[in-house]
Amino acid sequence: MKLEDVIMVSENREGKEINFLLNLADYMQTALSLWGDHAEDMAGAIGTLYETKKGKTDWSDLYVAEDRSIRAAFCTGEAQLRGFLMGHFNEGVWSFNEGRCSRDCFDVLRMYNMKTDGYLRFPYLHHERVEHDFHAGEVLHNMNGNDYYVLAALSPHNLLLMSLVDGQIIAGKGVRFYERYPEGERPDDDSIVTGVEWDHGIYFGTDITGIDFDILKQEYGTPARVENLSDLRDKIRKDFWMHRNVEQKEGLAMRVRKAAKDNLEEVFGTDDPEVFQVMLDRGVYDRMRHAKEDQKNLSGQSR
To answer: Quick check: 111 pLDDT over 90?
Structure first.
């Protein structure tokens, strides 16, 4: 059983809430026993429950009687499950009933090193690093319980991420991929949890438009390799726009902006983007490659 198959259930009886965890089969049986003659509404209720899995609603509410109701939701993450076990989603008096839980839900808790009160259990979990090629667009589970969307792979182990919890933009340095399972147990498909950890995270807030991506790539990215004319022109274009952005950026000291403008004139002969593009397309800057090759040859001869 996987984490996303666990159903969090809270039954309200006269204002007192009882929490427990069920698999789908046991949830349907529980709902049937509560509804009695109204079992024909089961399909609609299950449909509403599945909307919680897709993130379209937080809870599925079932009203059995005036003073009795249950609400349920598929678990969408480790942090949510821990919060449910700790009673963060209850509004009044509540308790957790282990006797009403499906047995395989306890296996899930063991996989995530949780007790039924949401706190850590023993023994600790074993982490084993595995190779993984990170790429933009994938969603990574962090071993801290949160999920992150990969905006860009700046280098094999430095990623630009967005937290799916609060939208924070983060540069994760030294990201590694792991398989995790209970210490002392033989791992299998049911017990292994995959996820990432990183050495250090730099937080940029939630406004992606305020991030200087040129500086970000320079700081955390893999240096661009120039192997052909197309690579050279791409690198020249990036260098031009890095200086151009500094020249145009408001809030910087005038001497800094002037230095960027002077450098544009000296290296590229212009600070006008249209003029630069024409000169780039005509191959005016291609000699930069030949100059570097000549320098390599001279260095080789001197040795």
So the answer is: no
